[in-house]
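Example for tutorial group B:
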């Protein structure tokens, strides 16, 4: 199955500054093979992403859940898939209904009638195309919907919050003797962020730095590991003490740092002396939507590679930096989010007529820019039920469908695009795993069937 692809040609005209140049056109065969493998994957095996828009956020037993599905391939409607599948499960994981819907130009709709006798607190939606099943199931669309009136009767105190703290070295690994940024994320057992503060100590108990959450349970600390083991000694919001071991630094390897600075992404690769001695060249490749948008090759004469990537001509989405050794084995990787606000269009909304009587007719006019072809859906909800503003079609298709794990209040990262918002979103990039590309499979030509 051949998938359509999209990436502005302007994205291929990136400039790399600070003394790092592009690999010349007469590059060695292995580099051409890598370029060809990435291009083939992007052209033929681009993953699809699905999003379901519901008529409301919570329902009662006996009601009908109406939804409209949008499926994208990269940033355009998915044109190849013609059938859409939706599994509805109860809160014990049992299948309630399998819905098959015809899809035209990446759009379809459907419904599910909640049984009147249903006693569960939630129903769960899992939605996908057949093509999406070729890829990691973690990227299928899932949604939990609350069923009103079925909340269990509780007695006594609420369960005690159990916070956990995780550390994520930037680029994948920390390396002894090289600068390392350790991002961290603190959540409770329900996935909600927790504020923490504390110190980092070495194996001798000496304090080497302090930590404090910056945003939604996330933060970071920068240090140069010296081969010791490090421990975070921290307290949660209730001043309860905890300890967490930091990932052990590797004896050799490369560290990758990416700095967000407006429309520039500055990167720095440091590497241990043994890696420099064993490699005459390091390669850095940037990809977006599976397409290669830049490639840099640099001799390992010093102990670092620096560069800057202009992003104003790139589409909105995840930009991935991957560092390879001379044998094209990936040794470090980092994602950064580019938000050029080029995929958000705000329609004009005008009420033509308010019908205030019961079941009265209301007329609403929605206008899009003349050059834009769109498919719309609108949800009219009882104000008493409220709405879930933590996720929307933009935050899902551009962000949460691309990374592992839950992003708390993902839609908030798209309400503004100032430097502060960009830094908060970069914390999300640092603390969530990303593996759309499995480089060993891509470079070996192993692709979905």
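The residue assignment follows.
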């Amino acid at each position: 199955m051949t998938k359509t692809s999209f990436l502005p040609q302007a994205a291929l005209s990136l400039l790399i500054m600070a003394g790092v140049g592009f690999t010349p056109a007469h590059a060695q065969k292995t580099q051409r093979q890598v370029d060809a493998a990435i291009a083939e994957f992007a052209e033929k095996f681009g993953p699809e992403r699905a999003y379901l828009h519901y008529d409301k956020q919570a329902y009662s037993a006996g009601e009908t859940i109406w939804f409209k599905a949008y499926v994208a391939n990269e940033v355009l409607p998915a044109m190849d898939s013609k059938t859409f599948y939706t599994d509805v499960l109860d809160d014990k994981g049992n299948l309630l209904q399998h819905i098959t819907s015809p899809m035209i130009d990446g759009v379809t709709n459907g419904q599910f009638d909640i049984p009147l006798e249903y006693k569960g607190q939630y129903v769960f939606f899992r939605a996908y195309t057949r093509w999406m099943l070729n890829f990691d199931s973690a990227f299928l669309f899932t949604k939990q919907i609350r069923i009103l009136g079925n909340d269990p009767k509780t007695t006594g105190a609420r369960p005690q919050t159990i916070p956990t703290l995780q550390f994520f070295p930037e680029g994948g690994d920390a390396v002894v003797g090289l600068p390392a940024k350790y991002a961290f994320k603190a959540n409770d057992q329900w996935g909600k962020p927790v504020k923490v503060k504390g110190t980092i100590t070495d194996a001798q108990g000496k304090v080497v730095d302090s930590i404090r959450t910056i945003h939604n349970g996330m933060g970071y600390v920068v240090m140069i590991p010296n081969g010791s083991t490090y421990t975070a000694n921290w307290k949660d919001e209730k001043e309860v003490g905890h300890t967490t071991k930091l990932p052990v630094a590797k004896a050799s390897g490369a560290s990758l740092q990416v700095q967000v600075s407006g429309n520039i992404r500055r990167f720095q690769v440091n590497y241990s002396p043994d890696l420099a001695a064993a490699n005459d060249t390091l390669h850095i490749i940037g990809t977006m939507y599976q397409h290669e948008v830049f490639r840099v090759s640099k001799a390992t004469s010093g102990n670092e590679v620096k560069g800057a990537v202009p992003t104003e001509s790139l589409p909105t989405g995840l930009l991935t930096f991957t560092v390879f050794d001379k044998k094209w084995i990936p040794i470090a990787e980092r994602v950064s989010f580019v938000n050029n606000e080029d995929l958000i269009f705000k329609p004009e909304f005008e009420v033509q007529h308010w019908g205030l009587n019961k079941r009265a007719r209301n007329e609403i006019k929605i206008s899009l820019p003349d050059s834009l072809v769109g498919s719309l859906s609108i949800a009219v909800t009882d104000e008493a039920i409220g709405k879930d503003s933590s996720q929307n079609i933009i935050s899902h298709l551009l962000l949460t469908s691309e990374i592992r794990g839950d992003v708390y209040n993902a839609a908030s990262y798209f309400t503004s695009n100032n430097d502060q918002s960009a830094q908060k979103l970069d914390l999300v990039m640092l603390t969530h795993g990303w593996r759309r590309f499995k480089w060993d499979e891509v470079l070996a030509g192993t692709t979905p069937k």
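Helices lie at 29-44, 273-278, 393-400, 419-431, 439-444. Compare this with the pattern of hydrophobic and polar residues in the output above.
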